[in-house]
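Raw record, unedited: Glycosyltransferase
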Amino acid sequence: MTNLLRIGLIMQGGAGWMGGAEYIRNIILALASLPQETRATFEVNLLTNTATDENFIDSIKPHVTNVHYLDQIVPPKFPELILWSIKSRLLRISDQRYDVILNKFGLNFVYPATSWDCRFSLDKVVAWIPDFQHKHLPQYFSKRELHGREKTYSKLVHSSPMVVLSSKSAAVDFERFYPDFIKKTRVLSFKSVMRDMWVQGDPANVQAKYSLPDRFFLVSNQFWQHKGHLTVINALKLLKDNGVKPVIVCTGELNDYRQPKYASVVLDAIKSFGLEEQILLVGLIPKNDQIQLLRRSLALIQPSQFEGWSTVVEEARCLGKAMILSDIPVHLEQNPPESCFFECSSPAALAEVMADFWHSLTPGPDGGKETLARETNKKECNDFAMTFLAIARSYVENRVRDLNG
């Protein structure tokens, strides 16, 4: 089929950033949910390496045409690596090993090039900029990382033929920072695809597995400074002082690469306020376990100071869960049902909502709400997939037109 759209998705994330892996997974699953006649017009190839988690690969393999392990297809040879390293620094060119992949497999839409991964020639790959966190919260970045982000963002904007943004909020920022390139942008706000295994699991069993109480709120964030854990801790302290003692279960890796001492700050705050029995840290757990705890919880709390597009909010949306969200622009844009907003970084505002929910909500899951949410999710994921395809086809059409003069 001469007009077959051959999509190449570059793997993102991992244990240090689960949101990146879920972003790619949701694109794949949303595309797989489209009608057969639409699926026949494209193929999906995952571009990854052998270090990628096997469980992730197993979850998406039935829904992609091929999984290409780049480190196997183009085996790196030490002299070539040294030569490439010198060239990339002196001449500012991409890793030419990966450019071979584009031609070898006839891929005509490769996505995403990012500020942290620019291995492909940028004039052949569509860029993804989730957000401009470093512009809004520069205090959480070192001078070196700020400089690096400015440099790579500028490279993406100037060199990539198209830039995908995760939200309208990011589009507003983009126009502010790069007004001359606004015509390059497209907005793709992803949706989490509801999976059968999510509602087939037993939340009570997973609760017991981690020795958790029946009633708890859930916070599912990496322990990065901007994710708002200290706001939650201080809100709990306010409530405890007034005789109200909610329990918070936190999932996520206890590490912030930008501030390695931040985990100690969080743990010290929990201990100094005597909240050890109210804040339960279960760490980075299997995805389905996290989903079952979300189903079991009273509500999700997402206290983040900044988001590109919150994955856990989308997961809670497709499960019909109640949510307590900081009132940052992206959360307001996501605007899920069953949600209540509080003033960002205000422990008092969060405490007020938590007290209300603690007294009024019961443990999940709620089968009726999940059924309704699932029906809505089908339409939302269809729209998400069709928007992705429209972006891909627009890129291909523009590139063909440019090549033909």
